[in-house]
Design goal:
Layout (H helix, E strand, L loop, with lengths): L2 H15 L4 H15 L5 H13 L5 H14 L2 H13 L5 H17 L2 H17 L6 H12 L9 H10 L3 H30 L12 H23 L5 H19 L5 H34 L2 H12 L3 H16 L4 H8 L4 H7 L3 H15 L7 H10 L3 H24 L2 H9 L5
Helix pairs in contact: 1-2, 2-13, 3-13, 4-7, 4-12, 4-13, 5-6, 5-11, 6-7, 6-8, 6-10, 7-8, 7-19, 8-19, 8-20, 9-16, 9-18, 10-18, 10-20, 10-21, 11-12, 13-16, 14-17, 15-18, 18-20
């Protein structure tokens, strides 16, 4: 390791350790590297601007953020929840099942775990805790766990970022996330059923089946959004980025004209909040692009790949080792940072070891989503604490069983790659 790279890492760790936003930390650390190595520090700006403007795929990020915010601001979430309650709310622990099913549906619209937790998650937590029917910590914990499905089922902002650093098809990555997302939803519902039986959670009054057709019709336009998005991408009508624009436009038409749930002032707030969120993500991406230039200058990915090939590491051992590392880092770092800064180190090694990069990408995204609910720095835990006021201690105590089953599901997906790759291969993926 060169002196300049050691100083870069030391600066990054110091700034992150004192609470500096990760985007600022990576940019400043990279500038330290450029200055000490005698390179023009203007390279930092060049790398950031070139990377941001040269990648058409990154336009999908602010569009998916806007679509999620529009969904949360209108009455769309309420209509979807009412439909989910009618379908699965009749069983013991039914609102827990509703929580998971709602996240499965909403994940096909937002692409963001935080949008899921802060929007539809807040509503269902209030439903679960009303009258003391469910413990506050449990309601928050299952909401956090189910929100992790958001970026696994398409659309997915983390998968867009992975496509940027791995040069893989967003379309195949999106397809690869569908079955794992459904699988994780089933696992969470099974755990909820077991816990509900053990702790004697209440049954809700069943919605008469005669009302189900009307409620389905009421929610149908919202349920069509993921269908329109996926048909556009896989039917060859739109690119993934254009599909994101269609999703945002459809959400706007649905909430503003069809359901008449948006005012001009609320629409202004949605666009302002979406711009702020997009700028925050863009800053992290810019910092990662500069840091990736530094890492490439040090030739670290190829060195790491060479060492692993010489050691003759089995691909499965490598996958498990990397995922253990990501689980550890996920408890400390943001998912965006891991995807943009850490994963590029391992992609050349994956190629050398014959590991499919679509499989690796989907697994890595799922892994980072588990990090969002892992103490001490799980982002979703803090988001739910902020929007509901439920103490972190109560949330964390109830979160551990969900973390355990999510890690178990992750191991299954590592050992059985066909769960990830079956749909992409069905649609022509040759990997």
């Amino acid at each position: 390791m060169s002196l300049q790279f050691a100083l870069c890492l030391a600066t990054l760790l110091f700034l992150a350790g004192i609470g500096t936003p990760i985007g600022h930390s990576t940019i400043l650390a990279s500038i330290v590297y450029l200055a000490v190595s005698g390179q023009d520090i203007a390279l930092a700006g060049e790398q950031a601007l070139w990377g941001l403007y040269d990648s058409f795929v990154l336009l999908a990020v602010p569009l998916f953020i806007a679509a999620a915010n529009i969904m949360n601001a209108g009455t769309i979430s309420d209509r979807l929840l009412a439909w989910c309650v009618a379908c699965v709310g009749r069983f013991r622990g039914g609102l827990g099942h509703v929580n998971v099913v709602a996240s499965l549906i909403f994940s096909g619209m937002s692409g963001s775990a935080i949008a899921d937790a802060a929007g539809i998650g807040k509503i269902i937590i209030n439903m679960m805790t009303k009258g003391g029917r469910y413990p506050r910590g449990y309601a928050a914990a299952i909401t956090a766990a189910s929100a992790t499905i958001g970026p696994i089922i398409p659309p997915s902002i983390p998968m867009v970022m992975y496509a940027l650093i791995s040069d893989q098809s967003i379309g195949y990555l999106f397809l690869g996330g569908i079955l794992p997302g459904i699988f994780i939803g089933i696992v969470l519902m099974a755990l909820n059923a077991v816990i509900a039986a053990r702790r004697n959670f209440p049954k809700d009054d069943p919605v008469p089946l005669t009302k189900l057709p009307k409620m389905t019709l009421n929610a149908f336009p919202a349920l069509m959004m993921p269908v329109i998005l996926l048909y556009g991408i896989y039917g060859g009508v739109t690119t993934p980025t254009e599909g994101a624009a269609v999703a945002a436009a459809y959400a706007l038409l649905l909430a503003g004209l069809f359901y008449r749930a948006l005012s001009v002032s609320s629409l202004y707030r949605i666009f302002v909040n979406s711009a702020r969120a997009s700028a925050a993500v863009g800053l992290v991406i810019a910092g990662a692009l500069i840091l990736n230039y530094v890492v490439a200058s040090e030739n670290i990915p190829n060195r790491l790949a060479g060492v692993l090939v010489e050691l003759e590491v089995h691909p499965l051992v490598f996958m498990i080792g990397v995922n253990l590392l990501l689980l550890f880092l996920g408890a400390l770092l943001e998912a965006t940072t891991i995807i943009l800064v850490i994963l590029p180190l391992f992609i050349p090694a994956c190629s050398q070891l014959g590991i499919d990069l679509v499989h690796f990408g989907v697994i890595a995204v799922i892994n980072t989503m588990i990090g969002l609910i892992t103490p001490p720095f799980g982002m979703l835990l803090f988001v739910i604490n902020a929007v509901t006021g439920i103490p972190l201690g109560e949330i964390i105590r109830e979160t551990w069983p969900f973390i355990a089953v999510l890690i178990g599901a992750l191991l299954v997906l590592i050992l059985v790659p066909d769960i990830v790759l079956w749909l992409p291969r069905t649609f022509g993926y040759a990997g």
